[in-house]
Specification:
By secondary structure, the chain is of the alpha/beta class. The chain is built from 10 helices and 8 strands. The chain has 2 domains: about 170 residues, Rossmann fold (3-Layer(aba) Sandwich); about 100 residues, 6-phosphogluconate dehydrogenase C-terminal like domain (6-phosphogluconate dehydrogenase C-terminal fold), CATH 1.10.3660.10. About 35% of the residues are buried.
C-alpha cells in the first residue's frame, strides 16, 4: 500500500510511529530529524531503515510529520514541492484548523494529498528514547479530509493505520476536531497544571492516593509544545475553561452556603453523566 514511508520528526510520536510501522508492516521507513544525531541514533537502533535526505523525498509514498505546529507548517511548505506527485502527507499535530488553513492550498499546488491526522495517544515523556512500538495500540486515529485528499486516499489511510494497531479511525472536520480536543485533551492539561499549584501540594506525601495521581499525571507536560497547541486553539479552549469555571463556581457556592441539597444534586448529575458517557 505504502512501500516507502518518510517520517519527519523522530521524537516520542514520530519515533513511535516509525517503530510501529517497522514492526507491523513491510514498509521501508526513512527518517528525518532537525538534529542529525537523533536520526543517526534511530537508524542505528533500527527505528528507521535510512536517514532521509532531500534526494530521497521523492521515493516516499506516505509522509508523516511529527513536529510542533509551526515547525510542521514550515517543513511542509518547504518540502512538499520536493515530494513526488500523488504521495500522501499526514501531520500528527493536535490542532487542525491551524494546519489545514496553512497547508491545504500548498498541497494542491504541489500535487500531493494532505490529510490532517491526530493519533490519540501519548506519554508524559518526550524524545526518541521514550518511543514505543505499542504506543498506539487500541488508540483512536483522527483523520481530517482536505480539498487535496480523496476518498481512495482516506480509505487507504484507514486500512493502513488499522494494521498499525489503532483501535478505531474517525473522520471529522477541522472545526469539529478542535472543538472536541479542547474538551477531551487540552482542558485536562490546563486543569491538571492548575491543580498541582495548590499550596498544599508540597505536603501531599502520605495523604494522596489514586485521585491525586489521576488528576496530576498530565501536569508533567512539555510546556513548549503545549503552550503552542493551546494558543493555536485559543477560542475553543477558552470557551471550555469558562465552562468549567462556571461549574466550579456552582460547587463553591453550594459548599460555602452549607447547601447539602444543591451539592448532592450537583454531584449526582456528575456521577450520572459519567455513568452514561463511560
Amino acid at each position: 500500500m505504502f512501500d516507502t514511508v518518510l517520517i519527519a520528526g523522530l521524537g516520542l510520536m514520530g519515533g513511535s510511529m516509525a517503530k510501529t510501522i517497522k514492526a507491523r508492516t513491510l514498509s521501508r521507513v526513512l527518517g528525518w530529524n532537525r538534529t542529525r544525531a537523533t536520526a543517526e541514533q534511530a537508524r542505528a537502533d533500527g527505528t528507521i531503515d535510512a536517514v532521509a535526505t532531500e534526494a530521497l523525498y521523492k521515493e516516499a509514498d506516505l509522509v508523516i510529520i511529527g513536529l510542533y505546529p509551526q515547525a510542521t507548517v514550515d517543513w511542509l511548505l518547504e518540502n512538499m514541492p520536493k515530494m513526488k506527485k500523488g504521495c500522501v502527507v499526514v501531520d500528527m499535530v493536535g490542532v487542525k484548523q491551524f494546519m489545514v488553513e496553512r497547508l491545504e492550498q500548498a498541497a494542491l499546488d504541489a500535487g500531493v494529498h494532505f490529510v490532517g491526522g491526530h493519533p490519540m495517544a501519548g506519554r508524559e515523556f518526550s524524545g526518541l528514547d521514550f518511543a514505543l512500538p505499542t504506543l498506539f495500540d487500541g488508540a483512536s486515529m483522527i483523520f481530517v479530509p482536505t480539498r487535496s485528499s480523496t476518498e481512495r486516499v482516506l480509505e487507504q489511510l484507514e486500512a493502513y493505520f488499522t494494521a498499525l494497531g489503532f483501535g478505531q479511525t474517525v473522520r471529522c472536520t477541522a472545526e469539529q476536531h478542535d472543538r472536541m480536543i479542547a474538551f477531551t485533551s487540552q482542558l485536562a492539561h490546563v486543569v491538571s497544571s492548575a491543580y498541582i499549584k495548590s499550596p498544599e501540594a508540597d505536603k501531599h506525601n502520605g495523604y494522596s492516593a489514586g485521585s491525586y495521581k489521576d488528576l496530576t499525571r498530565v501536569a508533567k507536560l512539555n510546556e513548549i509544545m503545549w503552550s503552542e497547541l493551546f494558543l493555536c486553539n485559543a477560542e475553543p479552549l477558552a470557551r471550555e475553561i469558562d465552562e468549567i469555571i462556571g461549574h466550579l463556581d456552582e460547587y463553591r457556592r453550594a459548599i460555602r452556603a452549607q447547601d447539602r441539597e444543591t451539592l448532592t444534586l450537583l454531584l449526582r448529575d456528575g456521577r450520572e453523566r459519567k455513568e452514561r458517557l463511560g
